[in-house]
Fold these 4 entries.
Entry 1:
Amino acid sequence: MIWLLEVLVLMLCVAAAAWLRFLGDVEGHAVFIETAPLRALLVALVITGAMAAFGLYQAHGRHNRANLLLRLALSFFFGGIGLLVIFYAVPQTYVGRGPLALTLGLGFVALLGMRLTMQNLLQVEALRQRVLVFGAGNNANLINRRMRRQADRKSFVIVGFVPIPGQAVVVREEELLATDCESLATLVEELDVDEVIIAPDERRGALPMEEMLKCVQYGVSVVDLSTFFERESGTVQLSVVDPSWLVFSGGFDYSMPRRLSKRLFDLSAALLLLALAWPVMLLVALAVYAESGGPVLYRQTRVGERGRHFELTKFRSMRQDAEKGGVAIWASKNDDRTTRVGKFIRLTRLDELPQLFAVIRGHMSFVGPRPERPHFVDMLNEQVRYYGVRHSIKPGLTGWAQLRYPYGASVQDAEEKLKFDLFYVKNHGLVFDLMILLQTVEVVLFGRGAR
């Protein structure tokens, strides 16, 4: 796991920085190393936490070298500030100005070099998983359509597509492998395949189960297309998913320990943020009132867990007559209904701070699918398959879809976001929630997806 490796590297950087700082001062070095392991671990955790906040641990992230350099620099800058705050609050954790400066410098160079080396290694085909696709129709071609960029294929390389007799061939001819279903296991062995993706357009009578069993006996992984997309892209592809896969593929953890851990996480995060943000909330309220008078807050009915309605409160960012006649309208880019203060607070997500009270009351979670208005939910339930599944858990202030997809303002956008929402609903957990919360910092700082 890259996180554990980088924690270890940063701890070694603390040790190297202490050695350089106390070079020639044996007594001072001996005193430092008495508590060095715990202090080194603290430094490593804070820096890697900042890196997570800037999206450097996203399994499906796409970062070029300039982007990597910027994110890493910001991570060390804000991580350094965070360490100074901790050192001030808990003096016993202080590592000293010299060792801290040296650690940040050495750590930045070491992690940058390691990340660039890993990027180069991932481009080496021999180190990637060799994948064969059984199927060459519309479903199989989704891999080419949805994962066409090199950044989408960092962990695998497509060896080829095996056409299925009697089914349409959509994949380009140069990607096809001439074979028949009865020799699939032989082909897998000849091409040194690591994984077979099962992607027929029609399953009935098309799957060579004996050949697939032989592949498994050879130690080759056999997965269906839905599982492949879930693992590699962090989405649930609606066009290839059937109810049986959702039922039998695992996930959907609603056990009592999970519900308790999620509620404790929600309350802790909401109360902490409220304690830090209340002065900002007061300033926002005054700014909204100064520009356009009252009311300062805007209330809407939204659909929550299991379809139950609740009242969502936000700072008002639009004119008071934004929805004449009570007709629900999606916000659009450069929406002329937005006030000057409203544009700023929507861009910085400050308008959503009053939703913390909904989290405390239990109507919302800190992390989850964004709540929609009943009018849109009724419409999307009719037009988008599985849309109602997202209401099996509480809606959230932030979520996986908010990190991976921009603001949605159409049925098509809602369908695309649902692919990420279903992935979260199916795979949510405490660690995943924490990662989403940290990466939301990046969304707020760079203003992605706001309207």
Entry 2:
Amino acid sequence: MTKISKAACIGGGVIGGGWIARFLLAGIDVDVFDPHPEAGRIVGEVIANAEKAYAMLTGAPLPPRGRLRFCQTLVEAVSDADWIQESVPERLELKRGVLTEIDAAARLDALIGSSTSGLLPTDLQRDMKHPERLFVAHPYNPVYLLPLVEIVGGEKTSAATIRAAMERLPPIGMKGVHIAKEIEAFVGDRLLEALWREALWLIHDDICTVETLDDVIRYSFGLRWAQMGLFQTYRIAGGEAGMRHFLAQFGPCLAWPWTKLTDVVDLDEALIEKIGRQSDEQAAGLSIRQLERIRDENLVGILQALKGGDGGKGWGAGKLLKDFEQSLWAQGGGETMPADPSKPLRLVETKVSPAWVDYNGHMTEHRYLQVFGDTSDALLRLVGVDLAYVEAGHSYYTVESHIRHLGEAKLGQAIHSACQILDVDEKRLHVFHTLRDTATGELIATAEQMLLHVDSKAGKAMAAPAGVLDRVKAIAASHAELALPEGAGRHVGQRR
């Protein structure tokens, strides 16, 4: 896949900051220009939320985080980027001026995307000398978690630009959808505007409160939309006869005067105050940042559930996440043999995320096994047992584990795990992992594991190939000089 080598973001607000986080966590260097005096703080908070979300989202090895640089001028920010994302406020003259300035300073081969949520790309590219490379790249908030990008070209946008933009999104975990015809507000925002307009009338007419309306969405069709969208949901509603039966049965209802979609509600002070008061009550004192974190945790859970849909193949945005993780595993996370393999191999660095803790604020039991499993996986990638090796039909399976809980990993705590190889033969790999507090070095837990090399297609153990064995034995020989770890060989219930 064609990848973005360096990005520039002009504007670092909610959307711009989301783009910055998405690029950085994909391993892409980002230059930023935003004259707002609080830009550094705002972007930093968005990145912090994104890092927490990614820690929950995937166990796949992320690439080294890209470098972030704030620039003093727009020209400095865009001069060396191959993808430039404009995310300034939604005013035509402002955006047009900024994009024209970007066009004059950018490399000739650079792609220029606008985050506009409704302005026509033809209007935006009017004054550009190279308008063929301008397109709308409209994302959804939070950009670092929601993968969709609406790609819309203007009258002067080239087909090659659209293809290049679509090709560069999958490597950063996003899905581009090409909107075939230029239209104000594109597709997503038109659907949202229709729902929003009707919702405002329902509040205006005191049919329900904002919380009731949100409950109607999140406890019913919102759950369906997350996995199947609109048309596929209605196909199922048509029963065995499918969409044609649904349209025949419910089509006549469209002529009934149920909605006020063509009427514009008057957002006078009274209605604004009513909605504001009910929204404050619904928030129950939660800050915007707290709501963002709750939103992110819930989105991660939904994406993880969809990743296991369709018998494990993934469904909707979950399939996109699964494919993104596959590409990360294929890259291997950049594991290289350490300079000094005579010490236990420090293989996993992470933080205890909100999704990992129980009601006491401590890391729950199965997450310890996850971290130790990630440690074994990192060791295997180090010796050549990577995604390609597994897809070829061979791997190491864990056949026995013994975990000791010696301390407590708490919410937000930085932790790391290290691996010592105790023994190896043609089929077996015996390892001992330690989990420690990164700041203090305090031992939190240990895991002793036996792994068996298998032919996964045949479903039986087999000898590992010489190339893998040679790498494992080289590390094992270095670790043979180490003392046997305290606790190695223990069994459940054994007195200390």
Entry 3:
Amino acid sequence: MPFETEIRPVPGSLADTDADLVAIPVRATDAGPEAVTAAAGDLDARLPAPLAELVAHYELTGKPGETAQFAADLGRGLVRVALLGTGSGDPADLRTAGAALARLAKGRTKAATGIARLPFPGDGAESVTAFTEGALLASYRFSLATADKGPAPVGGIELVCGDGDKPVEAVRRGTALARATALARDLINTPSAEKDPEWLAQRAREIAAGAGLEVEVWDEADLERGGFGAILAVGQGSARPPRMVRLSYTPENADRHVVLVGKGITFDTGGLSLKPNDNMKLMKTDMSGSAVVLGVLSALAELGSRTRVTGLIAVAENSVSGSAQRPGDVLTTYGGRTVEVLNTDAEGRLVMADALDYAVAELAPDQLVDVATLTGAAKVALGTGIGALFATDDGLAEALRSAGERAGEPLWRMPLTEEYRDALESPVADLANIATKSDYGHVGATEAALFLREFTGGLPWAHLDIAGPGRSMSEQGVLTKGGTAFATRTLLRWLA
């Protein structure tokens, strides 16, 4: 759903604004918390006490996202004034501050803040971009209710700044990053009754048309002719047949070619290896990887990326019926490799195997990256705040880790332990989709990554398992309940 909040730089000071919430930045310094008076103009004289005394009275530290509120007459009647902690002013702190301000301002018409006047590390552009991301993502909401539940997001946030230094480009960039993330969240949060594979393919067509991308969709007949046996096998239990989608972004003078592969399971019952009900309730979000890929492709041109990017999303509904694949079945992937299916709930790696095979055989990329809500084991290992990163190339791994740090989407590199590979051997096929023995215990996340590696053709490859941070059960920071679209902003920073 489009953002209801608009962020825009305006010249002047906080004393000039007509906003009904005015946020004065308080930064953390070695000497203690300090209100940024450069943004306030003559506001200090209209407050109930000098700014320094108010900071001390509310025992503020300048910690990012910290707030204190009071009423004051700024010359046009009482308005709400907030002291807003901004930490050191670096991007991570400003992203947190932006989210805090957006949550504080819900239900109001307009907020104004002086964060653009902070003494930023560096030129401050990335900090303003991060503030914009934080404020917009905290304002995101998705609802199919017939009436609003809770206060609406603030209508606008003004960044007061000097006449000649309006950070227009930084705000534009932050808005583009947040918009791509919100698009992915909308796809993830759409109920699966509506969101079947063809629905997702149609959304891809619309995104391609809006972003100037080339698009191709394989329907079930195309998949059969093309030999995409794994996608077909996963989808054969559903009355709503599978799809594969390719989107292509081709800028002039591209510096490399990257293929992104996204898992697109529009609903996951587990198949005949049925999930418990409590786990199944979350499974409309099991196509998060494909949503992330679509969000990334939607914003590459706007962000001026010089990287040629092909997005592949392998889309199926993993359902239960008389035609569903069975444990013990053997399927043949696009590249001709046979896989024994020992657990039909390990289906994401199957559809992605076909897409990876296709990428290696037909697209000749310089690098391959896949993203998926793939294993509960990754969530057990890293919790819900960190994504698992597996990679065959150290340079690629470090580039993605660094991009994740800058995006506020932390990634932790996990091992591709060679000793675990033998567990995927099958007595009747080239390999099995889960371990056939457990000499080293349950190593689900690494096991899944090792399975995927079999289909990467030796190319530099990275796998992002976002099963933990891909969903949020609470409203905090930049997150709202539901799909988070984790890794969208990481991949955009890496590519753009």
Entry 4:
Amino acid sequence: MPKIISPQVEFSGLLTQMKAVTPEVFAADGKFLNLMEGRWQEPGQPRPFTSPIDGTDLGSLPMLDRATALRAVEFAKKEAAGWAATDLDERKSRVQDCLNQLREHVELTAKLIMWEIGKTYKLGFTDIDRAIDGVQWYIDNIEGMLGSRKPLGLVSNIASWNYPMSVLLHAVLVQALAGNSVIAKTPTDGGFISLSLTFAIARRCGLPVTLVSGSGGELSDVLVKNEAVDCLSFVGGRYNGRNIADALSQEHKRYMLEMEGVNTYGIWNYSDWNGLADQLKKGYDYGKQRCTAYVRFVVERQLFPQFLETYWEAIRSLKVGNPTLVDNPDDKLPDLAFGPVINAMQAQELDRLYANALKTGATPIYEGKLDESLFLPGQDRSAYRAPRALVNLPRQSELYFKEPFGPIDSIVLVDRVEELVGEMNISNGALVAAVASDDQKWAARTAKEVRAFKVGINKLRSRGDRDEVFGGLGESWKGAFVGGALLVEAVTQGDKPVLGNYQDSTLLPEKI
């Protein structure tokens, strides 16, 4: 018997639930609206949107033009002064009310995330759950972090699609808690439906939040450079980030720009292969579509046979398929390593990078195959790709200096410690890295030579939650660091320097 889409995640049912919970998000004809000027309005120029899971039509992005988005920005700015003057206890009460209501709809939010960006249910649930728990921590600790600091005004948010809740919604709610009004652009590759649900709840609770959709090219000047915007929080690619950094350096406004880099894992004088196998499998969460995914392994040459055996066994065990399918209506959703990449276009880009690597001389060492039993017969599978891995990636390969943002690993073999460090620093700065060795003292010393913000010793490092700071070195981050008290400091002003990676200096926290 072929599998079926689980009735508990069937999209039309989820959409019916959302219309019952937040009817204001929809126009009379069912189209999605933008949240601007304090209410849901403006369907814009609808752009059809399909799910990466199987090509299902999910509705239309309500794309705005520049003039309409400018209205949204100007109104959001007008809300800033009144909200800043609101007593902190009142702000805490409203954000707490928002979290309480969000908790009632965690299941719905997680299942919408599945269809929008192809996460498994477990990862979709984790995304919204981490956002709520993270903001709760800020509510409980905001007095000590805020002190006498004052809000900046209007904070603009442009974030990638991969973590709509634990990155974008989380940042927005903390920014509002600190006394700012907030505007956010929905990621055009996915997340606008679940974000509309959560922003509708936030607005009902009296939070000064605005949510707009539109192309980056059309809205960039309004959301980035406009004088009404006092601070920009950006998560995205290095090319766009560099352009924004150049533009904002002339504007003299606060910014936090998280960009990509090649996150590396260095292995030298090492023997805990079972431990590494667990890390390899964990590192494939969401098909490596994460800013902290480890995509380059720099391995001591004499360890390559053991590494290769460990890698093969670990990656072969990963299940890749449609995350909505079950055998029977009452079955639990499948336990998959990951589902599709974000869309067919990204899958094709991964194919292009892989082909370019082979053409320039890289050697393939693993090419996974999709399991037919984990899909519906005849379903659209254009966004699915199994893991692949390469060794001896030449410098002329495009992938050598680039994060693939998908399930492609590259392995570089080295003979000297100096080579290992040089290869780990190939992208001039990264968000995370790791060094594995039986010699812990050597590993700790070598980790200091790696240009990553966080370096794990025999373990993966991640973005972190609550009081854990986050940022990047080199070209992987520009502007103020975030996480813990630094996130509050980044969106407020006071009498001490804001730590960050700036054009003329890098101000690091004492402990990372």
